[in-house]
Amino acid sequence: MWSSKTSERIAFTLLFLATLLILVPILIVLWVLIEKGMPEIRWEFLTEMPRRGMREGGIFPAIVGTLYLVAGTVAAALPVGIATAVYLTEYAKESRLKRLIEIAIVNLSGVPSVVYGLFGLGLFVIFLKFGSSILAGALTLAIMSLPVIITASREALASVPQSFREASLALGATRWQTIKHAVLPHALPGILTGTVLTIGRAAGETAPILFTVAAFYLPKLPKTIFDQCMALPYHLYVISTQVPNVRPSLQYGTALVLVGLVLSVNLVAVLIRANIRSKKRW
Predict the structure, then answer these.
(1) Domain range annotation of the chain
(2) Measured between alpha carbons, how far is 68 from 107 in angstroms, rounded to an integer?
(3) pLDDT tens digits for 128-169?
(4) What is the pLDDT of residues 70-119, one digit of tens each?
(5) Residues 78, 64: Cα–Cα separation, whole Å
(6) Cα 82–86–88 angle (5° rounding)?
(7) What superfamily would CATH give domain 59-278?
(8) What is the b/e burial string over 142-153, where b = at least 16 CB atoms within 10 angstroms of the residue's CB?
């Protein structure tokens, strides 16, 4: 028979190996991207317009378009997601309607992204007549991101001790004042976790923007939310499959910029979350 300490060491070792199993492929991917894409990373590559059918020049319109889509997605999805999570956690009583909403959220999280793209095409592009635009693309990505934000926000709200609510109500605060001042501030780090996951998914999706916003070749910046734009995921797909005689370093360089952009935005959100958590007193 193994002692409890031996069993604990074996369990820790297996968990450490499982962590390495996940970490090693990620490091290999990053190494390949850096090795093959770094020669392409220059200031001109990041700030110039594409030329010669995207075989030369930079990817500045694709970078700006990706940032526009991410910002629009977060702006549209975050308020709705938080409001839904607050309702389900703080207001809704156990009922058939609540169970239906929870089932719908679970089902939405499993819908393929290409289905969201077709839905966005039918609703925003054709029915609401937004056309192929930043608005249609951002709203489509927002709907796709809602399950992640709602789930993360509900978990964050549920993690706030019930005593906080009881103390606030005992002092004469209304339920909304309690949520606003005693619950949401403490749940904010968890809500930001859902936001970080949303940013990563929205920035890297190709299928939804293919139907609703992405332009094949558009060497200019959009002027309004009703304009089309280029985006890094679709741009990478195009230069890898549709444009002949593109040097491989351009493809890997674009992929490296996309990964770097997502990691940078996520890093900012993580630092904000860490700063908020450091101020907690419980």
Answers:
(1) 59-278
(2) 28
(3) 999 999 999 999 999 999 998 999 899 899 888 888 888 888
(4) 999 999 999 999 999 999 998 888 888 888 988 888 888 888 899 999 99
(5) 21
(6) 115
(7) MetI-like (1.10.3720.10)
(8) bbbbbbbbbbbb
CA 165-166-169 angle, to 5 degrees, is 85
Which amino acid appears at position 15 of this protein?
L
Tokens 């190709």 map to which residue? 206
Residue 104's closest CA among 152, 153, 155, 147?
A: 147
SS3 sequence of the chain: CCCHHHHHHHHHHHHHHHHHHHHHHHHHHHHHHHHHHHHHCCHHHHHCCEECCCCEECCHHHHHHHHHHHHHHHHHHHHHHHHHHHHHHHHCCCCHHHHHHHHHHHHHHCCCHHHHHHHHHHHHHHHCCCCCCHHHHHHHHHHHHHHHHHHHHHHHHHHCCHHHHHHHHHCCCCHHHHHHHHHHHHHHHHHHHHHHHHHHHHHHCCHHHHHHCECCCCCCCCCCCCCCECCHHHHHHHHHHCCCCCCHHHHHHHHHHHHHHHHHHHHHHHHHHHHHHHCCCC
Find all residues with CB under 8 Å of 50, minimum gap 6, and list them.
56, 57, 58, 59, 61, 217, 219
